[in-house]
Amino acid sequence: RLESQVEHLNDSLRAIVDSVNHGVIAVDLRGCITVFSRAAAELTERTEEEVIGREYAEVFPDHPTILLETLRGAQANVQEFDDYFGAHGGRTRHMEVTTALVLNAQGEVSGAVAVLRDLTERREMEAQIDRQKMLSALGEVSVTIAHEIRNPLGAIQLYMETLQAGGLDGPERDQMFDHVFNGIKLMNSTI
């Protein structure tokens, strides 16, 4: 009867851990992996069977050891990483890793747990929004420059048509040429 209750409790806890969208990895005092959620398996591209009972540092030798640092330093931690478990399908992944100590019923440290939150989609959306803002600002600048060029061009066209029609002599003609040259200078300073 007691075994049945323990098995039911373990199954319930496992179902809860696997229901969380974030990866969950727990280690005991020796640094051996004791819990490895479904989301952790997806994020790390490893199976539970490959990692349970093995040392965390042996399973994941090529990435930051924030979980083991929490265990050794007896201090919770939150950090963000790029490619925490390596690129996924050629795509850089951004992860937030939150760690905490696991305490037993007597309040003694019995291990540590890491919660892995994949921030990749959020970061990609933020980058896309930043690009859209930049393109929008560039469009606004382009419209302003076009306006600043179009006005002098219209005036130059008017002055040239007047000069082409003839009938202007001396100072009036020189004044028209000055207006044309000033319009050209204004466009050059705009660009």
List keywords for this structure.
five-stranded antiparallel β-sheet, 7 helices, alpha+beta, 5 strands, 19% strand
Describe the SSE topology.
Elements: H1 2-19, E1 23-28, E2 33-36, H2 38-44, H3 48-51, H4 56-59, H5 66-73, E3 77-82, E4 94-103, E5 109-118, H6 120-165, H7 170-190
Antiparallel strand pairs: 1-2, 1-5, 3-4, 4-5
Helix pairs in contact: 6-7
Characterize the structure shown.
By secondary structure, this protein is of the alpha+beta class. It is built from 7 helices and 5 strands, in the order H-E-E-H-H-H-H-E-E-E-H-H. It has helices at residues 2-19, 38-44, 48-51, 56-59, 66-73, 120-165, 170-190; strands spanning 23-28, 33-36, 77-82, 94-103, 109-118. The chain has a 5-stranded antiparallel β-sheet with strand order 2-1-5-4-3, sandwiched between helices. Helix 6 (120-165) runs antiparallel to helix 7 (170-190). The protein is rod-shaped. The relative contact order is 0.09. The model has no long low-confidence stretch (mean pLDDT 80).
Strand content: 15-25%
Structural class: alpha+beta
- Can you tell me the residue ranges where pLDDT is under 50 for at least 5 consecutive residues? none
Gap between N and C termini, in Å? 85 Å
Counted beta strands: 5
- The number of distinct helices, counting runs of at least 4 residues, comes to 7
Major sheet strand order: 2-1-5-4-3
Order of helices and strands: HEEHHHHEEEHH
| Mean pLDDT rating | 80
Quaternary: single chain
Measured as a percent range, the helix fraction is: 55-70%
**Describe the biggest sheet?**
5 strands, antiparallel
**How much is the radius of gyration in Å?**
34 Å
Overall spatial form: rod-shaped
